[in-house]
From TrEMBL:
Source organism superkingdom: Bacteria
Name of the protein in its database record: ATP-binding cassette domain-containing protein
SMART domains: AAA
Subcellular location(s) of the protein: Cell membrane
Domain ABC transporter per the UniProt entry, residue ranges: 7-239
A Pfam family annotated for this UniProt entry: ABC_tran
Family classification: Belongs to the ABC transporter superfamily.
Keyword annotations from UniProtKB, A to Z: Antibiotic resistance, ATP-binding, Nucleotide-binding, Transport
Major place of residence: membrane
A molecular function (GO) term: ATP binding
Protein topology in the membrane: Peripheral membrane protein
Length: 308
């Protein structure tokens, strides 16, 4: 494995014993040092299962996986000592103070009491929780708890930080604060690997990502590459009166998607497509021209049907 490749998977598979379900079905990917790499996909796509294999808590059923040049099954303890994990659930000790959560976690990694206290002070500053050092965790807001969970995952100065849905349930302000903290970590050379359901988060944070669906990888690339590859530069959204037919196809529109509440026209020039639709007799209630996003890519690759 090349020195700058920290995670490499070839034909990686995971079959759950209960029912023989192939949660991950032969995926290939490589993650380089200093990257922010994302796994996107609907529920049940295999994202979290892949993350658990990288984190050395779920052994692969097949294929090859190397993390930091090591075998996660044979060298699991060595790998875990060099990575940090931010799970979906915070799993903090509510009865302890913010600082105590950091100090005790540092002791788990073999830090002396003085080293653990010094590290806690550094991480409190990083997470902007200095004024909450003595507060009980139970009194923290959701955004503060997530920042504390990320700070705790950095106690061992990890080379790789795994983040499973890091901002789920947070308000926009808290999400942006967390994005800033994660961007700082990337600048400091930490490799970030994350799953998220927020497409704007993936566009903001990820250098590269894969879109997973039914245990396989449907697409891989940077957010901009995927948008250019799978959708047009702009999308025209039209809300039409009940019963009104959708606009006729034209040379200006690459694809038309009819939804229950609106019609999407994928085009390189939204204003020109709108003018053509109006000239053809369309009388939309509202019309919106917007740039195409990663969400358009995601929905094209995985569909709009809800997966339970």
């Amino acid at each position: 494995m090349a020195a700058d490749v920290l995670v490499e998977a070839e034909g990686l598979a995971k079959v759950h014993r209960a029912g023989g379900v192939r949660a991950v079905d032969g995926v290939d990917f490589r993650i380089s040092r200093g990257e922010a790499f994302g796994f996107l996909g609907p529920n049940g796509a295999g994202k979290s299962t892949t993350m658990r294999m990288i984190a050395c808590v779920s052994p692969p059923s097949g294929g090859r996986l190397r993390v930091l040049g090591l075998d996660p099954v044979r060298d699991g303890s060595s790998v875990r000592a060099r990575i940090g994990v931010v799970p979906q659930d915070d799993a903090l000790d509510n009865e302890l103070s913010v600082q105590e959560n950091l100090v005790i976690y540092g002791r788990y990694f073999g830090l002396s009491r003085r080293q653990a206290r010094d590290k806690a002070v550094q991480l409190l500053d990083f997470a902007q929780l200095n004024d909450k050092a003595g507060a009980k965790v139970a009194a923290l807001s959701g955004g503060m708890r997530r920042r504390l969970t990320i700070a705790r995952s950095l106690v061992n100065d990890p080379e790789i930080l795994l983040l499973d849905e890091p901002t789920t349930g947070l308000d926009p302000q808290a999400r942006h604060v967390l994005w800033d903290r994660l961007f700082r970590l990337k600048q400091d050379g930490v490799t970030l690997i994350l799953t998220t359901h927020y497409m704007d988060e993936a566009e903001q944070l990820c250098d590269r990502l894969v879109v997973m669906d039914k245990g396989t990888i449907a697409a891989e690339g940077s957010p901009r590459e995927l948008i250019e590859r799978y959708v047009t530069r702009e999308v025209l959204e039209l809300r039409l009166p009940p019963g009104a037919p959708p606009p006729r196809p034209s040379t200006l529109v690459e694809r038309v998607e009819v939804l229950p509440d609106r019609v999407l026209l994928y085009t390189e020039d939204g204003e020109a497509a709108l003018a053509k639709a109006n000239a053809d007799g369309a009388e939309p209630i509202t019309a919106l021209v917007r740039r195409a996003t990663l969400e358009d890519v995601f929905l094209r690759l995985t569909g709009r049907s809800l997966v339970e």
